[in-house]
Structure to design on (76 residues):
């Protein structure tokens, strides 16, 4: 049982690290296609005040686009 817990903990650390690395590659001006190529398909999206928000809920992160370009990204 302890072994399984250690393995699960290590997998979570590794997945968070690779996710952080990918998310750090997102910057203002990127296109939606570039974001999806970097982060993969979002878990959801919504339109809010003229902006499209891509949700990456595994990490509670988002990417906001206006006119098809990244304007901001972050965590909720």
């Amino acid at each position: 049982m302890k072994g399984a817990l250690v393995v699960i903990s290590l997998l979570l650390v590794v997945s968070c690290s690779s996710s952080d690395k990918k998310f750090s590659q997102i910057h203002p001006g990127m296109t939606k296609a570039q974001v999806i190529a970097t982060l993969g398909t979002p878990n959801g999206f919504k339109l809010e005040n003229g902006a499209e928000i891509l949700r990456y809920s595994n990490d509670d992160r988002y990417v906001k686009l206006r006119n098809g370009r990244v304007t901001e990204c972050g965590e909720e």
User: Anything to note?
Assistant: Strands lie at 44-48, 51-56, 61-66, 69-75. The helical segments are 2-23, 32-39. The chain is about 40% helix and 30% strand. The radius of gyration is 15 Å.
